[in-house]
Amino acid sequence: MRIGVLGTGVVGQTLSGKLASLGHETMIGTRNVEAALARTTAEMPGEQPFGPWHHEYPDILVGTFGEAAAHGEVVINGTRGAVSMVVLELAGAENLDGKILIDVANPLDFSQGMPPSLTVSNSDSLGEQIQRTYPGARVVKTLNMVGAPVQVAPAQVGDGDHTLFVAGNDGDAKDAVANYLREWFGWREIVDLGDITNARAMEMYLALWIRLLMAGGPMFNIKVVR
Ligand SMILES: NC(=O)c1ccc[n+]([C@@H]2O[C@H](COP(=O)([O-])OP(=O)(O)OC[C@H]3O[C@@H](n4cnc5c(N)ncnc54)[C@H](OP(=O)(O)O)[C@@H]3O)[C@@H](O)[C@H]2O)c1
């Protein structure tokens, strides 16, 4: 399948790397291709700068946000949540129309330092903003509640016995995404929270996720036990 991954950070790298290893024709999107490929210093300790990372994955195409969105039969938003609306405008409504748009982003506001707050919450969410602005896209919010390494390898945490959530207005799109998540990454327990308004809860969970990350790193997840 042709997949467009918007985002050159650890999420874009991790998802693209895994998808390409599965044989998908993957294009990663960025503001400026040359600038991204020339990057040799990481923004955060422990992250790989895009240039050396791409050397390890030469088969992954690199394009602008618009080119990556146009390339994808499915498009993934793995960009900084505070600027995802700007990125999607660059991607172009015409390149998202009718497509499944998997939204992995969190609208985190780091302007006051750690831990971050949210740029949108309570009665709205980034997932909803995206769906409202791009009514032709079939937005499915998922994977935003787990760290990048866990997204593509849930079995690395508790043998994979934990929960992933999805939310979105289009039931067929959610079913398709749940199947992708099972096939591509091995997710087993997927809970459908309902329509895209449920992205509020998924994004507000980040207040706890960030604190758990600060307490012990990214290799964890939660499980719903009734
Ligand atoms: N890190 C995780 O483990 C994790 C887990 C779950 C969800 N998430 C969410 O996934 C998303 C990606 O996270 P990340 O850590 O991989 O990377 P990130 O640093 O949050 O985002 C990197 C991407 O955002 C773009 N970007 C940054 N500032 C921009 C601006 N002013 N205008 C346009 N684009 C801009 C960058 O574009 P260029 O390519 O042009 O530089 C890059 O593609 C975030 O929303 C994050 O909250 C992260």
Account of the 3D structure:
The protein is an alpha/beta fold and 226 residues long. The protein is 37% helix and 19% strand. The chain has helices at residues 10-21, 33-37, 50-56, 65-71, 84-91, 126-133, 148-152, 171-185, 199-204, 206-216, and strands at 2-6, 25-30, 61-64, 74-77, 100-103, 108-109, 117-118, 138-142, 163-167, 189-194. The strands form two sheets. Strands 3-2-1-4-5-8-9-10 form an eight-stranded mixed sheet, with helices on both faces. A two-stranded antiparallel ribbon has the order 6-7. It starts with a strand and ends in a 10-residue tail after the last helix. Residues 7-12, 30-32, 36, 78-81, 83, 86-87, 104-106, 108, 144, 147-148, 218 line the site of NADP nicotinamide-adenine-dinucleotide phosphate.
Mind sketching the topology for me?
Layout: E1 2-6, H1 10-21, E2 25-30, H2 33-37, H3 50-56, E3 61-64, H4 65-71, E4 74-77, H5 84-91, E5 100-103, E6 108-109, E7 117-118, H6 126-133, E8 138-142, H7 148-152, E9 163-167, H8 171-185, E10 189-194, H9 199-204, H10 206-216
Parallel strand pairs: 1-2, 1-4, 2-3, 4-5, 5-8, 9-10
Antiparallel strand pairs: 6-7, 8-9
Helix pairs in contact: 4-5
The protein binds NADP nicotinamide-adenine-dinucleotide phosphate (NAP).
